[in-house]
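Here is one chain, start to finish.
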Amino acid sequence: MNEKSCLIDTDILISILRQEEPVYQQSLDYLEKFGMFKISSISYYECLRGYKSIGAIRKLKIFEKFLEIVDVINLDLKIMNKASEIYSLLKPKGLLKGEFDLLIGSTALAHNLKIVTNNEKHFEPLKKYFDLEIENWMK
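Its structure:
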């Protein structure tokens, strides 16, 4: 398979869990092609903390079931090294959009993955300076 697999950003992950179109159909097509989703441990944390903080037991159970078809990529030294490289270049230029996006984008770059997000602006500097490929399933 020549097509590059993707890292699903938190916003897209939530749309998949809600079965929102057109994201949901695109996610089914992707799953058929690649057999599994990939998310950062940061996205895992963002979903988990969100559902727990509002007591969304049903949504938490849906998320936990969904994790059966998800490869959660944990932060490691390779990702931290990439993140620090990106930080050192983008911080002086005032181009950082937030630590979580930095770590999610660094995960995609360190693992040679495209990122699927509706927050394209957050990842534009990584595209411009580090050739991060961005896909948007909401369009």
